[in-house]
Amino acid sequence: MPTSSPVHKSAVYEHIRTVVLNKLPINYKILDVGPGEGTYGKSLQDLNMDALEIHKPYIYQYKLSKYYNNVFVGNILNFNYDDYDYIILGDVLEHIHLEPAQSLIKDISSKGIKCLVAVPYLHQQGAVDGVDSETHHQPDLTPRVMQSRYPDLEIFLTNNYIKHGYAYYTNYIKWVK
């Protein structure tokens, strides 16, 4: 589904505007990976933000070019994100197989790029409307699993539920304190 949970979204937007932007360089660049219907782009469209969408029809269906400076078609695993200061992986990590996802998070962190990761807990999902990239390859995510698999990430916000839970993680908690 090209949508994401509304859990804590307003707090996340506020965090990006009031904390993250104050820590980024003046000429910052943000990349929203897997924007789907453009949730972050719509709410933060005044920011210097690009999008990377794997499913090209969503770009036109959800008019993503209205909300982002640039909209690229591709897979984050094959995309050069080195010029970005901040990456949003909202409801993306669970769609990537474990080892490539772990490598992605390690690479982002090792390059000093700050990232926000949002994931649903214990959420099985296959292809949606024939879109294979909607399949969850990590349907077993929980707080404990996230901590074990992604040691570079720290929990930022959660609704504290395991089943039907949702959480935001960052690789920069210490950076903003």
Chain-wise SSE layout:
Blueprint: H1 9-23, E1 30-33, H2 39-43, E2 49-53, H3 56-61, E3 71-73, E4 86-90, H4 98-110, E5 114-120, H5 143-149, E6 154-158, E7 166-170, H6 173-176
Primary descriptors:
177 residues; alpha/beta; Rossmann fold; seven-stranded mixed beta sheet
Architecture overview:
This protein is 28% helix and 19% strand. With 177 residues, the chain is an alpha/beta fold. It has one domain: Rossmann fold (3-Layer(aba) Sandwich), CATH 3.40.50. The radius of gyration is 15 Å and the shape is globular. 36% of the residues are buried. The model has no long low-confidence stretch (mean pLDDT 89).
Question: Major beta sheet, specifics?
Answer: 7 strands, mixed
Spatial extent as radius of gyration: 15 Å
The CATH homologous superfamily is named Vaccinia Virus protein VP39
CATH class bucket: Alpha Beta
Q: What is this entry, summarized?
A:
This protein has 177 residues and is of the alpha/beta class. The chain is built from six helices and seven strands; from the N terminus they run αβαβαββαβαββα. The chain is 28% helix and 19% strand.
